[in-house]
Amino acid sequence: MLRKTQIVLLTLLGAAMWAFVTFQIKSHPEASLDTTRGLIGFITAPIVGFLSVRLCKAVGRLSPEQILPGVSVVGAVAMMMDGAALQWFSGLYGFNEKALRLSAAGLLWGYGVAFAAAVIWVAWLQRKTA
Question: Which of 78, 108, 122, 129 is deepest in the core (most CB within 10 A)?
Answer without folding.
Answer: 78
